[in-house]
Queue: 2 jobs
Job 1
Amino acid sequence: MKKKLLGFVLGTSLVMGLAACGGGSDTNKDTASGGEAAKIFDQKCSGCHGGDLKGGMGPNLTKIGSTLSKDDILNTIKNGKGAMPPNVIQGDDADKVADWLAAKK
Ligand code: HEC
């Protein structure tokens, strides 16, 4: 069971790695529109908040910008909240994601 899961994880990251290589030229194209923030979120936060921000183990964040400011979100990322661990991302990454989420209204 464990081995099977590992194989799945490895297989998935291999496929994702190949896909990333294929689209390499436009990786940074849409940084301004949140492409990079979305990618970070996808890697670090979507496990709990869902790939489409609609929530999972963590709350729905699709309209988080209407209740929390960028600073509030940054604080949540830094300090954690309830079952959410602190410092999942830091520095520039945290700043980008907070900025991107604050625009979700
Ligand atoms: C281990 C699971 C987990 C991960 C990983 C995680 N979160 Fe959370 N998050 C939660 C849970 C659970 C809550 C609800 C905490 C509470 O209110 O008690 C939460 C709450 C939040 C809130 C506050 C929502 C509100 O309405 O107050 C924000 C903003 C947030 N998360 C953003 C993020 C971001 C950005 C990331 C990635 C850097 C992230 N989370 C990663 C589980 C997670």
Note: The pocket of heme C is lined by residues 44-45, 47-49, 57-59, 61, 64, 67-68, 73, 76-77, 81-85, 88-89, 97, 101 (CB under 6 Å).
Job 2
Amino acid sequence: MRLFLALFLVLFLPAAQQAPRLVIPLHTERSSPGDLEIGGELAGIPFGSTRFLRYDELLQFPQQTITVTDDNFHTPTEISGIALSDLAKVLGEHANMIVAICYDSYRSNYSPEYLEAHGPILVLRINGQTREHWPTAPNGDQLTPYVIAHPHFIPRFKVLAHNDEEQIPYGVTRLEFRNGDHIYAPILPAKKWRSDEQVWNGYLIAREDCFRCHNSGGEGGTMGGRSWQLLGQDAVKNPQRFRTIIHSPETLRPGARMPAEAAYDAATLDALVAYFRTFAPDKPIPDPGVKEPAKP
Ligand code: HEC
């Protein structure tokens, strides 16, 4: 009997010591406005459909607790939550990218390299408090229903004057677990441009920066209300205005919601012009004008 028990321990203990496989209930119906929508290329779920995670169920999962100071939390703040890469392991076995989509149509794309380097966390508690007690962002916007934060952000690369940009969206309503090739395909420069260093640099910058708010087809954010093809047309029509809009939008459009990239120098702005020009349509497309994005 004793021998049997010893064998049992040797055979089964290592397996038992591994973290238990977490099962997150994916609901087909929304239970409250604070549920987190889940979609993308998920095993067993048709592409384009939505499932829901409930806040109270997410709180049952093991949480990481860290102190952060970033744009959303100006004073040191203790946050707890689930690492996005842990969620991906549980939910998105075939996906290598996570897209966080916000109530104002802003989105952040997390590549595998980004997840590995920066370890972003889906925040569930702020200073130990559940979200009825959360503060607002320094600009007064709601952080709820979900916000993403980092343990400590050290830029991992630099392209011209663009630094690897911290992706810390708030007001996140949906996470998509996706294949990165599908996401980037509509903004990849055409083959003949891929060996052009200036165009390629423009691509690397636009993909991290502009793509959060400007879309190409169904990919990318729509907060800017202006597609990649229209931006291409803008870059051809008036490259100087295009540069100024990126560098200091307020000078041309008082009250602009588009953030200034004041650190972008001439070479960086030129790379963006060179890249976007490759997306200018052959025949001019109608310009609907620049709209104020709708607030929730
Ligand atoms: C955080 C969201 C955001 C990001 C990031 C962003 N934009 Fe915008 N963009 C907007 C919004 C919103 C508008 C509409 C005007 C406004 O309110 O600023 C806009 C408008 C524009 C316009 C038209 C403005 C005009 O007056 O003609 C251009 C061109 C443009 N964006 C280019 C870019 C490029 C290129 C990048 C990347 C370097 C970029 N945007 C990054 C949100 C963004």
Note: The pocket of heme C is lined by residues 106, 206, 209-210, 212-214, 223-226, 231, 234, 242, 245-246, 249, 252-253, 256-259, 272, 290, 293 (CB under 6 Å).
